[in-house]
Amino acid sequence: MCGIIGAVHMKGNIASILRQSLKRLEYRGYDSSGIATVSEGTLFIKKDKGKIDDIHHRLNFDTLPGSIGIGHTRWATHGPPSKVNAHPHTDCQKRIAVVHNGIIENYQELREQLQANGHRFESQTDTEVIPHMIEEALSHTPTLKEAVAETITQLEGSYAIVVLGTNGKELVCARKESPLVIGLGTQGVYCASDVPAFLPMTRKTIVLEDHEVVHLTSNSALMSRIDDTGSLAPLPIREPTVVKWTIDMAQKGGYPHFMLKEIHEQPRALSDTLRIRKNDLEAFAEVLHNHKNILTIAAGTSFHATMAAKYMFSHIADRLIHGVIASEGSDTVAESLGKDTAVLAVTQSGETIDTLHAVKHLKNQGATILTITNTVGSSITRMADSVLYTQAGPEIGVAATKTYATQLATLASLSISLGTMTGAQTDKESQELFMALNQFPNLIQAVIRNQESQIKETAQQYITKSNFFFLGRGISTSTAMEGALKIKEIAYVHAEGYPAGESKHGPIALVEPGFPIIFVAPNDNTRRHLESNVMEMKARGAQIISICSATDQRLIDLSHHAIPLPELPSKFFSPISYVIPLQLLAYYAAILRGHDPDQPRNLAKSVTVL
Ligand code: AGP
Fold it and tell me: Which terminus of the chain has fewer CB atoms gathered within 10 Å of its CB, N or C?
């Protein structure tokens, strides 16, 4: 995944605006970046390997001249991170520059044809074919827009592109399966992978659909739709949406890292999400109710939310759901299983390609698609028959935190609503469950307020440990797995999240004196059996760290360290509060080891490659 931006201003230099926009897109990729501008008919480019601030320190992006330009922050797919592979890429005559997010699947054939026609390539990227194809097209088409249209009809794969030509007055952008949003400001016009890129300049946005091409000047954004032959049909003027996000919401708000800010935002994110309209929830639940099979599709943290949902749906709504990891989706579900199946795709970004592919596969087989996502206008929303939005606001840290809490809250609400339909819950019981759920914003506020400093100390105490187990039973297995994922991805500490009962069937062989094991141990019906697992590990010299109820004195006494949490208003929703200490532990483990939790190595916020 990469971040792209294009901007045309009426006057003044655009370079520093593009640089700052790229900073706000850096969560999408950060192994190299670059900016191209045009002034007096000449293209100027600065790009390099590394993060934007470091490159800026070396090259000073802000001295690029001109009031029109494009920028890119990269997460490598084709070709390693390097200066030549950094975007923007150009044609042979250096008259066209292109930034691209996505993957051109047929780039090898296109490149060979272009090379046979005499084009010279500098990089190993798939993207570089695009400026050369536009260069070819411009030899027989009158306008940049038409040359772009002719080019993109030949591309297979996914793309959001912005194209800059040396006439210095126009940009052309287009999308297919990768996000692109237009911003209409008073000083000029913008296009970007995501709204925060241009939020300081404007809140007026238009989300582009697949196969739309936009011609941007400093005071216009003319939209067209392209057909398979490359013909462009003008689209009627679309009213912009005014986004409510403030720039503050999209930035760190005084916290040292986005991740910490986002952990602290969870009470607010949760209450906003719990304000979900009853009718929307019921309409969604009804679709589930009317299908024989319910299949969840999700990746990573979102998959852990669906694991928890499996318990909620079973215990609250008497419905069994099948949880499938997105990357396995199209291989797991046989072709005959589409009909009578409701697919519930959970994805904060709405752009995870594994999830999109699995959903597309199931949709083609006749399944009904429902989705829970945090991102308005994302690709999944266009595939789905029905959408429920979580209200986490923008999540910039690569590690999912507040989006996880809001997914859990939405899935919990849905299971209650479904429970009333299936008859598993009386109206009174479901009301009580909703009341319990509504106590969680305050509850997690208290966990953060009362436990953060103790968790930081715990992280310090285990700083020398390089292996951890995270164990839980029942619904807490998903919490344990999420805790392990968090510490792996941002602190680079090896951890296994496992069902506690299953741990004796192999993993226990790794336990030796001093081995740290984190038990997720709410006071629910798993608690009694979990104690046996604690004893088994303790007998082998493990260091026991328990996340448990403050009233569970027995477990507190058995543990070497305990993080006591407030009593649960309902045992069905324990992941919402029990994951908080694990998020904080991972955060402080990363900080104490000197790692940047917002931009862990090898990862990107949403993974748009298979
Ligand atoms: C979470 O911390 C990870 N960065 C990752 O596992 C993520 O949850 C996964 O890639 C799915 O993303 P999505 O919710 O945007 O689909």
Answer: C
Mutate to test the pocket of ligand 1, among 327, 349, 403 (most ligand atoms within 8 A of CB): 349
Catalytic residues: 2, 605
Quickly state the pLDDT bin for 472 (edges 50, 70, 90).
Answer: very high
pLDDT band, very low/low/confident/very high, at 2 (cuts 50, 70, 90): confident
**Residue of 352, 381, 408 to test ligand 1 pocket, by largest number of atoms within 8 Å of CB:** 352
What is the per-residue pLDDT for 75?
A: 75
Average pLDDT over residues 279-296: 95
Cis peptide before 88 (omega within 30 of 0): yes
| Phi, psi values for residue 35, rounded to 5° | -135, 140
- Measured from the CA of 300, which atom of ligand 1 is nearest? 6
CA of 62 to the centre of ligand 1 (A): 34
Cα of 304 vs centre of ligand 1, distance in Å, is 10
Task: Kindly give the number of the ligand 1 atom that is closest to the alpha carbon of 486.
Answer: 2
Q: What angle do CA 597, 598, 603 make, to 5 degrees?
A: 95
- Give the C-alpha separation, 74 to 268, whole Å: 32
The topology (CATH level 3) of 447-610 is: Rossmann fold (3.40.50)
Strand segments, DSSP code E, in 193-299 are 204-207, 212-217, 220-226, 232-234, 241-242, 293-298
Are domains 3-216 and 447-610 of this chain identical in fold?
A: no
Phi, psi of 550 (to 5 degrees): -60, -20
Question: Beta 322-325 vs 293-298: how paired, if at all?
Answer: parallel
Spell out the domain ranges in the chain: 3-216, 255-438, 447-610
Q: What is the pLDDT of residues 114-163, one digit of tens each?
A: 999 999 999 999 999 999 999 999 999 989 999 999 999 999 988 999 99
Ligand 1 geometric centre to CA of 351 (Å):
10
Q: What is the DSSP letter of 572?
A: G
Cα(165) to ligand 1 centroid in Å equals: 36
Pocket of ligand 1 (CB under 6 A): 299-302, 347-349, 352, 355, 398-400, 489, 606-607
**pLDDT at residue 249, rounded to an integer:** 63
The C-alpha atoms of residue 440 and residue 267 are separated, in whole angstroms, by 8
The class that CATH gives domain 3-216 is: alpha beta
Tokens 């928890």 -> residue: 308
Residue 253, pLDDT score: 63
Q: What token pair was written down for 163?
A: 């194209």
pLDDT band at 296 (very low <50, low <70, confident <90, very high): very high
By C-alpha distance, which of 182, 194, 162 is closest to 26?
194
Instruction: Give me the chain's average pLDDT, please.
Output: 94
User: Tokens 């936009």 appear where?
Assistant: 214
Q: Per the CATH hierarchy, to which homologous superfamily does domain 255-438 belong?
A: Glucose-6-phosphate isomerase like protein; domain 1 (3.40.50.10490)
Q: What integer pLDDT is reported at residue 549 of this predicted model?
A: 97
